[in-house]
């Protein structure tokens, strides 16, 4: 069909326009695919790492803060003959000889059913007695041993909660797949006895895994369990753990979709401009008897061609990008949620398919309007262009009026109480759509407002530039909208991050009141109480509060527990959202009441006087909520309780950290140095000053938003490509008009000024338009998206830099886009341009 | 269809444009008959409604009143799609600015209407080669239109208009954009080529040269059509 | 001086090595790799363990318990039982102990140990022509598996043999009255065993030599006749049974000689309240004589040691396992001229092969023959290992 040939030649005739469109859609698709692959890889890594230990486990017996009493395992096996189960001891160690890397220790009983898990299976070529016959025998994945430069046998020194130990690597195990290798990457497998000792868990099990296929067996096991333990199904437990990262993933996905939406505008823009440029030609085609459906198909086909090429490039780019993003996402997951080894991007066909479908779908949707526009071009024997512009201007009002629809939907989605996170993001996208409809009207307004100013500043060129913008509105409105949206996204996300960061900084200042913090990170047994006593007796020490961080696992998920023995004074460090320190304190100190952090209250829908249920040593027990406090340390939330309360219900004397308050006249740094070289010498404890801890917290905060920033930049890049492509095509199209100007005595410099003023004006307009939208996005992110994701309250901190940056970015993009056409047009002799047309 | 049979009949054709403030009546009761093989020149001043009339004849626009019959069939009542198919099959167009498709070669431009009409590729190519040789442009088949002079482009345009052997060729200022010499060449073609297939040519023009080679001249004045003689 | 079942020593040592192979993917059909007994045994490091070098006076109940300084030890129960209406069954319950190192590890963990355990369980349903067997492994720590002397208790998870302290042994200090319970999804046993004869010390007062090499020996005693009653459950059917059981306890450190291929072991309870234990260690080289030994227990409990040349074992028939393709001898004629004893020993059913981590045939047998010209009959267990 010759019509198809026209389409293809048209794409080839405008190579930069086509290529930029392809790049735009490719980037959009790449971002979507990369984020999806990254999320998916994290999920897979999680699943696999779970499977490595849990294997075919259908259930887990889980205990309290210190795990399970090992005798339970003996009782179940020996007294009750329950056999499809196996014990697990897990813990963390560091490898002092290998850059102090963090490793997981997994302790197994090779005599338990050996077919169940990959960890067990990986030992298949070994004698189980090997783990017993060699003292502190340890197994490493083959790749891990190679990475550490260890041969077999060799010695591996570890430092864990149970102190320093020398392990003997007696064998390496081979993983069946790269993913399995990843799960084993930082794992050392030992006999359960060795693991208990080095992780400081003597007498305790992390959990017992079971394979229970029949409901009566489940009921039987459940009936046998003591009250401080619980039988949880793997599926629910895995889900509960994975839920932790869900909001984080959704936020990344939404940002990636934003990039695609901007990419969509680009395709829309390219096709619209292309259709407008070919208006006369399309009219001829219609005259010659080409039907409107055929034109619709042919324009859609052109867009699809760009879309498919863009998607293809996007796949490769996305995979490459995902490798870069993975490290950032992995870092955040490890910082905020749980320890997880993710080094391997697993290319899932589903992720790619999703990206392809979204890319092609976005292209088709974006091409709908221009295709429709093309199909509506009337046949015409004598062609005039001004008709289009009249039509475009008359549609400005109509579009603006129509904007009420998406804006209403957006308002409903964003403001109706109880809305989901998904609804929140949908609302954002509707708001953006509504804004895109309003953009042309606002653009006209801005141009009208700047007109007098421009004509005064630049004279004729300024007047012409303003008129040029309005005259070419049919071509420029989408460009400006797309740029405005991209810039507003970066402004909005920027404001949100700044607000969040400032909120956290302020919170930390109030929250971290002690002078020094000493912690036994990752240790089960924690800080030696004698050591604390010694510190408390040092001159200059005013007071000490101790804390215990622990997790309570249950079928319903994981509860972060923060146990502290603070006095009333230190209790005031908590900033209450509901309730207050004075009224909460007595019940907190003596009355079995807890206080919960804001995200906890949000996720669990608990308020003051509500109750939270926690599994204590004597079974599930209700605790009254005496207050809700601000906390930005955990996005899943924390339950804080007094140490006395904790000790009444849990036989766990461990202390994770303690805070030292010094007398006012003590030099903190000098005291810290003395402490480090004195009492803390040879201990495994970490000493940090208030300032260092705050800096560390902010460092983690910044790491968390590293991915966000990458996506932000990519979105802006796509938009800049968009404006570049659109403005360039508009300006180049005007060769004849400029030739006339040149012929009439315009100097190249004047022409150059005209073009760049026009494109700069468009950029400026986009930048200005982006500000209210950016502010709106920021507020929506802060008050709706963030609340629905994490439940945090943030103060809004508006600083000029985001606004200035936004406008500067847009103007720069505009100027840049005008530069090339201006140079080219200015260089072209007028006679050539005239004849050429 | 033989020479002399009525191909198009206009009966009390009106065209009124609804402008912003008031209606603008361009054609007020046109009655005319155009016969097979006839070359008719419509003369009139700018804005006299020549283009409007051509639009109506080509089924591009619909009359506000009256009837236009093409071989006895009323085209005033056809829907958009039928009119498109009507144009595709029965009408050829010659534009003032040639309006060749810039992304198609000369050969492909000529192939275009044949292709639209579903003529099979071999026959269509044969026809195009024949047309090119008639034009004396056989060696330019692979060129793109922008490589051709205005006269050459318009000659190709004439050939495109007759390629699919339509019953009617509509020409809007076919030589309006050409110099005197090339005007003659194009006019010769425009006279000769349709004749072979007894195609009616209606050319809107204010060029006396065009008028001089017409079989019949009509004047469009004040929205009505009057025979010159 | 020679001992019965030296093979078992190999098993226990081997079992630990093999068990992972068994427990891991058995592959389609569950075929097990054949193990070279001798090859693996010779690689077992026995340095640091005590060895059975000279006879020692056994002291009961202490010596019913474990001897962790020796590498290997087992407690072995077999028996022929029948219901009141004559339906016959056999059972086997064995607990093997293997120390992986001579010394227990110094560790605060209750899981830390150098002692590992393996248990085998089998039931022969003679009239149903069916054979059920199972195996288990555990470490000798945390109470998962172990053996204690007073009161006697030997267990691996919920398979257990324990002293029935409620019944008296009437002044016999080596005697044990036991309760045993074991089983799996297919078959379970719950039996009460009462000693009717004191312990028989095999070999040289309990030192049972198994090759000419000094130290290649075990300490070995048996309770040759325990009156047994209880229930055997097969599927959903429970059978009340009575009969007799045989209890062996043996501990040692050293291994087989390189040139020994396997062994045949017989424990027979004969009419007239007598018992016979025989074994032969088969030499690889047909030119070399097999290493044989045995004990004949008279009705009054007196024991006669049987030396090489005192008896012969003639194979009358053979049977090939469809599951493993291994051919085992399947009928024997035993002659002990000095006691005027000729016996034909026949498996109750052929299919009593334990296709476990370690593959062997161990099954209930019947015996008929003549003792000093009078007809005699009996029943017992035969064990055959090292057949390929």
Concise summary:
The complex is a heterotrimer of chains A (837), B (229) and C (388). Chain B has 229 residues and is an alpha/beta fold. Helix content of chain B is 35%, strand content 28%.
Structure description:
The complex is a heterotrimer of chains A (837), B (229) and C (388). In chain A, 62% of the residues lie in helices and 15% in strands. Chain A has 837 residues and is α+β, with helices and mostly antiparallel strands. In chain A, a hairpin with a 5-residue loop joins strand 3 (85-95) and strand 4. The model of chain A is unreliable at 833-837 (pLDDT under 50). With 229 residues, chain B is an alpha/beta fold. In chain B, helix 3 packs across helix 4 and helix 5 (150-163) runs parallel beside helix 6. By secondary structure, chain C is mostly beta strands. Chain C has one domain (6-23, 33-384): AttH-like fold (Beta Barrel), CATH 2.40.370.10. In chain C, the strands form two sheets. In chain C, strands 1, 2, 3, 4, 5, 6, 7, 8, 9, 10, 11, 12 and 13 form a 13-stranded antiparallel beta sheet that branches. The chains are: A alpha+beta (837), B alpha/beta (229), C mainly beta (388). At the A-B interface, helix 1 and helix 12 of A face helix 1, helix 2 and helix 3 of B.
CATH classification class of chain B:
Alpha Beta
CATH homologous group name of chain C: AttH-like domain
Low-confidence stretches of chain C: 1-43
Largest sheet of chain B: 6 strands, mixed
Layout of secondary structure:
The complex is a heterotrimer of chains A (837), B (229) and C (388).
Chain A: H1 2-13, H2 15-54, E1 59-62, E2 68-69, H3 70-79, E3 85-95, E4 101-108, H4 118-122, H5 128-133, E5 137-141, H6 142-148, E6 154-160, E7 163-173, H7 178-183, E8 187-191, H8 192-198, E9 204-205, E10 207-210, H9 215-224, E11 230-233, H10 234-243, H11 246-277, H12 279-287, H13 292-336, H14 349-376, H15 386-402, H16 404-415, H17 421-458, H18 460-471, H19 473-511, E12 516-519, H20 529-536, E13 541-554, E14 557-564, H21 568-571, E15 576-578, H22 581-590, E16 593-597, H23 598-604, E17 611-616, E18 619-629, E19 638-642, H24 643-649, E20 657-662, H25 668-677, E21 686-689, H26 690-704, H27 706-733, H28 735-743, H29 748-789, H30 800-827, H31 830-836
Parallel strand pairs in A: 4-8, 5-7, 14-19, 16-18
Antiparallel strand pairs in A: 1-10, 1-11, 2-9, 3-4, 3-6, 3-10, 5-8, 6-7, 12-20, 12-21, 13-14, 13-20, 15-18, 16-19, 17-18
Chain B: E1 6-18, E2 23-35, E3 39-43, H1 50-57, E4 65-70, E5 73-74, H2 80-90, E6 91-94, H3 106-116, H4 121-135, H5 150-163, E7 168-172, H6 180-196, E8 200-205, H7 208-212, E9 216-221, E10 224-227
Parallel strand pairs in B: 3-8, 3-9, 6-7, 7-8
Antiparallel strand pairs in B: 1-2, 1-4, 4-5, 9-10
Helix pairs in contact in B: 3-4, 3-5, 4-5, 5-6
Chain C: H1 6-23, H2 37-42, E1 72-82, E2 88-99, E3 115-125, E4 130-139, E5 145-148, E6 153-156, E7 159-163, E8 178-183, E9 187-195, E10 200-201, E11 207-209, E12 217-234, E13 237-252, E14 260-270, E15 274-283, E16 291-297, E17 303-306, E18 312-320, E19 327-336, E20 341-347, E21 353-355, E22 359-371, E23 374-384
Antiparallel strand pairs in C: 1-2, 1-13, 2-3, 3-4, 5-6, 6-7, 7-8, 8-9, 9-12, 10-12, 11-12, 12-13, 14-15, 14-23, 15-16, 16-17, 18-19, 19-20, 20-22, 21-22, 22-23
